[in-house]
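Thread: adenosine-5'-diphosphate complex, take 2
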Amino acid sequence: MLDDYLIADEPYYRPLGNEIALFEAAYAHRLPVMLKGPTGCGKTRFVEHMAWRLKRPIVTVSCHEDMTASDLVGRFLLDANGTLWHDGPLTLAVRHGAICYLDEIVEARQDTTVIIHSLTDDRRILPLEKKNELVRAHADFQLVISYNPGYQSVLKDLKESTKQRFVALDFDYPAAELEAKIVMHEASLPPAPAKLLVTVAAKSRNLKGHGLEEGASTRMLINAGLLMSKGVSFAEACQVAIVIPLTDDADLRDALRSAVAACQ
Ligand code: ADP
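Output below.
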């Protein structure tokens, strides 16, 4: 069961600190883990790497504001023989002992988030109210959530009672040298252009709070690098993979473009 969710090949991951050991210690006690950090800084890659290391299947759900509890736990569906229950992704992970990764959990409505409460304390149970069933979590089940502290408003924050169930690991963009190595690996780039991209990222991150909501993520640098590996020039790759996606504001685009030009 859930063999499709096992990761066969090692996902490339360069540690930023001792997060691998910390996650392993948390998993040993099946403690729920929260990964905090800006978008595109390696949280998903890390949890995939850990699932591979721990040889556990991983079920990932990207949370969004229209997500209902049924989208997570499951629902009755009609077929030729009547109604049949279909486990949702969370229930699948709970029953069969996977790691369930709820990406961007705060996007989900608070009434959806509370269904994880009984799973994240020593009860480790998931009530399927519509089915009148109480699912006891498989011994190997673990819940992992990601959370981007930058986007939170008071209205869209995790409840205190939810937060306090998790151990949390802080993530951030890797230090320049490490980030260049990651870009080199992921975009098959030589060191010099990878370093240039990292310099552009640093400049864009300085604009955070001065109009930009977020600076360029590692993911954006990799996208730019992938374009460059197909012959696109540095300036144009930065333009389409970093400047245009980041902002629609003409002044900010100009500022970013000058930052790119200054790096060349
Ligand atoms: P997040 O889940 O934080 O939004 P991702 O995990 O999807 O971000 O990271 C975006 C990309 O950046 C990954 O696909 C991977 O290529 C790369 N990446 C970021 N950090 C690392 C790291 N520490 N080691 C290896 N790759 C990384």
